[in-house]
From TrEMBL:
Site (Lowers pKa of active site Tyr): residue numbering on this chain: 78
Catalytic activity as recorded in UniProt: S-nitroso-CoA + NADPH + H(+) = sulfinamide-CoA + NADP(+); S-nitrosoglutathione + NADPH + H(+) = S-(hydroxysulfenamide)glutathione + NADP(+); a primary alcohol + NADP(+) = an aldehyde + NADPH + H(+)
Domain NADP-dependent oxidoreductase: 17-292
PANTHER family, per database record: ALDO/KETO REDUCTASE
Keyword line: NADP, Oxidoreductase
Name recorded for this polypeptide: alcohol dehydrogenase (NADP(+))
Enzyme class name: oxidoreductase
Entry keyword Repeat: no
Assigned EC number: 1.1.1.2
């Protein structure tokens, strides 16, 4: 049985649940993707900056050889901030395609609205350790992204970490509409306004860090590391005989938000997939909605002074 999907404004469908792969490297990434595909995952989320596209490509290739059809799997990757100069967009996309061993991407996202200095150093910094930025407006990059659709290299394009004003600008001034905005979302950052805006404009929201990256230093630093121990989440999970992680993920898919939890652990990859045999009640949904406190794991704080830093506006 295939898992539920959302319809994109291009008419194709995107699974509501996928595997996140940030920090999954080399063999553990390859194994995680193989495990996930065998369990029924049909959406894989990666990015040039995760440096694991080749391992994902290998896992996909083997599954294609074993009978999985290309059109049965949805692959998202992202254009990194050092590739935002319009001349760099096509080569970056071609490199990702080659790494993944694919002849088209299902979805290509601009990773963030802030451009960094061109070159192969993914994290260019100055003497003070601050990112060296590039004076390129994201609309210039977007126009180069549109050409990838024209060329048939990508089925759809979208954005990531764009706030409402920035999403609106792409929608208003772009020739091709962004189909997805991928943003951090979990019960502590519900993105209720962004979701309302995106729904009204037929843009699908994908939630990254849907578990608030449990146990990470970033989650602790920003006070979101207790999400899976939150009494509201724990009580709802006990009521349904589910885990707190499953409740956080179910809350997203039940409001038609795509989730891409990352795991390289087979038991947790499976746990995160067991979402489609229970329903949260309206009271459960509203209790979780009320946990929103605009508390996120990812702030791109080193870009805070950049004019396009997205998090000055509440999502
Ligand atoms: N667009 C962007 O800017 C952006 C930013 C961040 C992330 N992302 C995407 O979103 C994906 C998910 O975000 P994330 O990886 O940052 O955070 P996350 O999915 O919220 O959390 C991942 C962490 O949770 C653990 N975990 C997984 N399932 C669990 C469960 N059921 N119970 C307890 N712990 C569990 C994982 O460990 P194990 O691996 O050991 O299970 C891993 O340490 C990324 O992998 C990436 O694909 C996009």
């Amino acid at each position: 049985m295939s898992w539920p999907a959302v319809r994109l404004c291009t008419g194709t469908s995107m699974p509501l649940l996928g595997l996140g792969t940030w920090k999954a490297r080399e063999n553990e990434c390859y194994q995680a993707v193989k495990t996930a595909l065998n369990m029924g995952y049909r959406l894989i989320d990666t990015a040039e900056s995760y440096e694991n596209e080749k391992e994902i490509g290998q896992a996909l290739r083997e599954n294609f050889a074993a009978g999985l059809k290309r059109e049965e799997v949805f692959v998202t990757t992202k254009l990194w901030l050092t590739r935002f100069h319009p001349d760099d967009v096509l080569p970056a996309c071609q490199r990702s395609l080659s790494n993944l061993g694919l002849d088209y991407l299902d979805l290509y996202l601009m990773h963030c609205p802030v451009a960094w200095a061109r070159g192969d150093n993914l994290y260019p910094v100055d003497d003070n350790g601050l990112p060296v930025t590039l004076d390129i407006h994201y609309m210039e990059t977007w126009k180069a992204m549109e050409k990838l659709v024209d060329a048939g290299l990508v089925k759809a394009i979208g954005v990531s970490n764009f706030n409402i004003s920035q999403t609106k600008e792409v929608l208003t001034n772009g020739r091709i509409k962004p189909v997805v905005n991928q943003v951090e979302s979990h019960p502590y950052v519900g993105c209720h306004w962004l979701l309302e805006y995106c729904r009204a404009n037929d843009i699908v929201v994908t939630a990254y860090c849907p578990l608030a990256r449990p146990g990470s230093k970033e989650a602790k630093d920003h006070g979101v590391d207790m999400l899976l121990q939150d009494p509201v989440i724990v009580e709802i999970s006990k009521k349904h005989g589910k885990t707190p992680a499953q409740v956080c993920l179910k809350w997203q898919v039940q409001r038609n938000v795509v989730v891409v939890p990352k795991s390289v652990n087979p038991a947790r990859i499976q746990e995160n997939s067991q979402l489609f045999d229970f329903e949260l009640s309206e009271d459960d949904m509203s209790a979780i909605n009320q946990l929103d406190r605009n508390a996120r794991v990812v702030w791109f704080l080193r870009c805070k002074t950049h004019p396009h830093w997205p998090f000055g506006e509440e999502f």
